Amino acid sequence: MSFREVDKIPARRDITTNVTSYSAHREDLIIDFKARCGYCNDIHIYRIASFEIDHFIPRVRNKKPFLSIKSDTDYSNLVYACKSCNNSKRNKWPTNDENIPNQNDKGFIDPCDKLYDQQFIRLANGQIKAITKLGDWILKELKLDKPQHEIIYNLEQLDLIIDQLKVDIENLEDINLYKRITKLLLNYRDYVQQLGTV
Q: How far is the CA of 115 from the CAs of 13, 33, 43, 95, 102, in angstroms?
């Protein structure tokens, strides 16, 4: 199974508006990143307060200013990211050259780059799995193997099923449908409880 469906792959618009703070781009980032973390693809419905703005090329590296090509507010360098991924990435940049995002299977790929999706797959249980050496490095550095990513993926899948069941509810006299709804609601509650413990 592919990591992200085509309609969920982020695409930055060419926004060149001068702003005084990168946070002024938040609403545009939510649109361009489809209300999802650019790195783990978690939708922000379940944790909107925990979403932040990451600078793909770090602003500071080894306690020294690092951005020379892109400004602090350059939209093309911003990533809508969950707190978990943003905190894991921090100011890591293994090449120490802002022009080179990765080298020798270490480093990052901009999540808007189509190559990002070629690093991972999503298993049926929601687990993110690396399929390249660079993907494995990114997975470990961003901690994409945290259970919360699987849980949020499964909650989203259950929400889709609930939407379909709403359409099918007219056939409620069907006992199999009633059993499916009951099982679904129990699974949903289980995932919501799990999310509270991670």
A: 18, 16, 21, 18, 12
